[in-house]
Amino acid sequence: MTILAVQNVSCSFGGLMAVDAVSFDVAEGEIFGLIGPNGAGKTTLFNIMTGLTPPSGGQIVFEGEDIARMAPHQIAARGVARTFQNIRLFGKLDALENVLIARHLHTRTNVFAGMVGLPGARRAEREARDKAMSILDRVGLGQRVHATAASLPYGDQRRLEIARALALEPRLLLLDEPAAGMNPNEKHALSDFIRQVHQDLNLTVLLIEHHVPLVMGLCDRIAVLNFGELIALGAPEAVQNDRLVIEAYLGEEK
Ligand SMILES: Nc1ncnc2c1ncn2[C@@H]1O[C@H](COP(=O)(O)OP(=O)(O)O)[C@@H](O)[C@H]1O
Ligand SMILES: [Mg+2]
Questions:
Q1: For 187-216, what is each residue's pLDDT tens digit?
Q2: pTM, whole model, 2 decimals?
Q3: Cα–Cα distances in Å, from 22 out to 16, 34, 223?
Q4: Which of 3, 18, 70, 146 lies at a C-alpha separation of 20 to 30 Å from 140?
């Protein structure tokens, strides 16, 4: 079953077609890779899917509903969560607080009710805290919950970003270059971690990655963008050997 249908989506910045009439479907439960050289339009497509950038044309159908021009919080509430290519954490807040802030949007707890000690609000607060702790445990940060985000090593900050997205209890998780800046060991661990989370939480994952090897072993299918256009779509081996894909990546090296 299709969970996400990208239908003829375009986005232009001035004269530049950052995304050019792109269409593909993501099946429920898939780990789907979105790859392509720098500037191909991958992040722009995520921005459209999450309501940060309005498309100039096309639809994004998530679970049967067009979300393409909704506000970010409306899309998040429907079960789409993301991480950012450039880490966006509250550096001075600790890991637990970073996750709680994300959950706050989801649980709609009233901060004031919590302060004056209304029992319902207190219970909700405690539940939110327990949930946040269990998510942090899941991403391997159970021992670092009181470390400020800024003090965490880079790989842990990436995990915290994922924890924050998971706090929204998404059905579709969008990861924008989660392995960027990691060494090969960290990349390997991250790949295992994504597979585990995908399995345990019954998630559909859409993963942007610049380098091909990480997605090869992880993704069920891969879509390739180049200069805003979809140039290939299919199983990892087929995409890896596709002439247009090879040329696109060679072109980047020049
Ligand atoms: N807000 C923006 N205004 C103008 N141009 C943009 C904006 N965002 C992205 N672009 C341009 O759109 C193209 C696609 O960028 P992006 O989606 O970030 O690519 P990728 O994530 O594949 O590296 C690039 O040429 C980039 O410079
Ligand atoms: Mg990008």
A1: 888 899 999 999 999 999 999 998 777 888
A2: 0.91
A3: 15, 12, 10
A4: 3
